[in-house]
């Protein structure tokens, strides 16, 4: 029903401005309040675990939200929505970076050799770290001027968000002991969001197939000519 | 026939929240499907309010116990605050989150209780609720508790040696292992109602020890902590405590202790035998496949900045149990 309503309301730049304001307020205030509670030992018995879960789940939520924007904008014909994608993505990175920093600072407590061995030995940490590297790259190339300078490669680079999101889903699934229901729900939501981009993923495959087919017909034609 | 015309100022019946709904409003909020971060916050809120008297949630009543304090069971370690011990629990019968047990277990009924000791014994015993506190000399023992998830606490337990209990039943010479069962009661334990809410465990929760491990003087049947009877989230009314093994071995709310000649398959072995073995001795040299066991974070007081990562000790710092495992490859028998 929400989708139907949104079709009749034209989203203007004023609307997206307020949406952005509420995004900033929610993401930042939640992060600040939770860290404050953790610093002052008001976040349950183990504030380290609590902050890791909060930032991890928060990053995944924001990442899914950023992946929701394009299909929503397309389906509802609300081009303006796309301007929300960048700030949401940047907050996803902020939460992910907080997640990793908290792991390093408060869980491992700056034991660098331990970080290194955990990164190598534990697959769920390896894939999580790989996802963070991708998100860092996307964040570093997120400004408008860089986007212009990169031209076509920018879109290709930012398609790596799909790889990152799959790695995040795997990271979550592998990190739990036996309570896999919530990670599975997250993975399913992600798959639905990726499935909505079916055409995009199939396009390069199709064009490659077409090229090959074209080549074949051309060589056949030239063979005919020779004959 | 009486036709009553309500005054316009009167509250109409459909405006009143049904009491049942009102009482369950927190549950309702949770069931509306706030996942992740919000679930974390509501849990925190519920547990905080129920423990500081701010909420209307019923809090389980514990009572003071009488006990001795043998010197050799006291400790230099800084105790984990009571509030943390009773609000940070793994007890999947009441939910898989760390704050779920304290939230979901406060109406748990422990009296009447029945604990049976049977199997390969001459004289099977059944203990009722009062017998748990009266039949034995209760001692306070301060033990380190090392969770397989690499966090640890220091807990002042109150209880008695499991050996004293087993001796009362006169074990037969054929008995080699001791099997423990947690209560199975899906009505009271929401995690047992279906596989999804209980972390995929096939209930009841089962644990086991070799008979010589069970008879070791360190092995404790605990009925209390911090001077009072156990709250449900910590395994009321009676639980096992094996301080040199990972926490999941210390089974809670025990209803049956059975002596057998065969090694039982324990709950976590069933779930993931490559990650959780039968012995589960604390061992810094044998990592969990997914994380290191060489160090741990000790939960005491302090927020994020407390530097609480410490080296994990072999057998959790209880070297006197090493003789139980001479000539055993502890890498294979993890």
**What is the count of structural domains of chain A?**
2
Largest interface comes to: A-B, 46 and 40 residues
Please trace the helix and strand order of chain A, writing H or E for each element. Answer: HHHHHHHHHHH
Strand content of chain A: under 5%
Model regions low in confidence, pLDDT < 50 over at least 5 residues of chain B: 25-56
Record field, number of beta strands of chain B: 12
Shape of chain A: globular
Percent of residues in helices of chain A comes to over 70%
Distance between the termini of chain B: 79 Å
From the alpha carbons, calculate the radius of gyration of chain A and give it in angstroms: 22 Å
The domain tally of chain B reads 1
Low-pLDDT parts of chain A are: none
Strand content of chain B: 15-25%
Sketch the major β-sheet of chain B. Answer: 7 strands, mixed
Termini Cα gap of chain A: 64 Å
- CATH topology call of chain B: Sulfite Oxidase, Chain A, domain 2
> Main sheet of chain A, how many strands, which sense, barrel?
none
